[in-house]
């Protein structure tokens, strides 16, 4: 199941809870109870069930308006997204701010979807939103790796010490005559060289992440605004959304490949650290 589908399922329960437990619902119920107790019959013709019926109707109205409020529903969806992809796990302020901006932009698309009538156009936009959610999730993952690397002093120290370690091993190798020891030194130098190379490649990958995330933020924003600016569900606009779906899925795959590449390098670097 795609991430957005899982969030939508959870949001359906959260929306009902939000509607039932919001403060407006409590005010209607409390007001109804007070009127029943202290003013049960304001007029001689007023039936004993008058206030309870009005209370039920008022509560139903609040619940209905909550369930159909596009802004409130999108906010609930965004809160669930932030529970799934917690931006507070990212310590670097700039990286965290960009992730929050991504979530806000994604929320704009959710608001737009809830303003659309049921039909082929809405179905296409929801498909786009599913791809966008996967794309944002991959951006979040690569950002987590970048944030972790910034604070990972083990690898920083290892990268600084690696050249000296290789030089020391090479110096010992030049003066060593025992065959077994020469073999061990050769193996140690080869391992140290591979480790240093891995660290350098990982560092180069990580250095590309921050500008990459900044560009991804621009691309996500442009995609969402291009959809939100559409006015109706004409054939041409359906084709535009279909194109954006394809582009979004391709972007998600590209970021996923970067995440997998960094994950493999990071795991190798930690194994040698």
Largest sheet: none
Secondary structure: number of strands: 0
Secondary structure tally, helices: 9
* Poorly predicted tracts of residues: none
Q: Give the mean pLDDT.
A: 79
Description of the molecule:
- The chain contains nine helices and no strands.
- The chain has 273 residues and is mainly α.
- It is elongated and about 115 Å long.
- 25% of the residues are buried.
Concise overview:
The protein has helices at 3-21, 23-38, 50-68, 70-84, 93-114, 120-150, 153-175, 179-228, 235-272.
Topology summary:
Layout: H1 3-21, H2 23-38, H3 50-68, H4 70-84, H5 93-114, H6 120-150, H7 153-175, H8 179-228, H9 235-272
Defining key terms:
single chain; 273 residues; mainly alpha; elongated
């Amino acid at each position: 199941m795609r991430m957005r589908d899982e969030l939508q399922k959870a949001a359906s329960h959260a929306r009902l809870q939000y509607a039932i437990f919001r403060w407006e619902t409590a005010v209607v119920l409390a007001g109804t109870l007070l009127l029943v107790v202290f003013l049960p019959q304001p007029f001689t013709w007023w039936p004993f069930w008058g206030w309870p019926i009005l209370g039920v109707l008022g509560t139903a109205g609040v619940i209905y308006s909550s369930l159909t409020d596009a802004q409130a529903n999108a906010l609930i969806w965004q809160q669930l997204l932030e529970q799934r992809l917690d931006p507070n796990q990212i310590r670097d302020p700039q990286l965290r701010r960009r992730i929050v901006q991504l979530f806000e932009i994604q929320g704009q698309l959710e608001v737009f979807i809830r303003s659309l009538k049921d039909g082929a156009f809405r179905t296409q936009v929801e498909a786009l939103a599913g791809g966008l959610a996967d794309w944002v999730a991959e951006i979040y993952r690569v950002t987590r790796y970048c944030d972790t690397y910034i604070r990972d002093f083990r690898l920083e120290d290892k990268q600084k010490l690696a050249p000296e370690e290789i030089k020391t091993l090479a110096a010992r190798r030049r003066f060593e005559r025992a065959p077994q020891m020469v073999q061990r030194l050769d193996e140690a130098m080869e391992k140290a060289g591979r480790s240093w190379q891995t660290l350098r490649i990982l560092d180069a990958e990580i250095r590309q992440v921050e500008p990459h995330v900044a560009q991804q933020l621009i691309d996500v924003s442009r995609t969402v605004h291009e959809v939100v600016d559409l006015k109706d569900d004409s054939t041409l606009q359906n084709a535009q959304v279909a194109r954006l779906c394809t582009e979004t899925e391709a972007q998600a795959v590209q970021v996923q490949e970067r995440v997998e590449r960094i994950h493999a390098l990071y795991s190798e670097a930690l194994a040698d650290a």
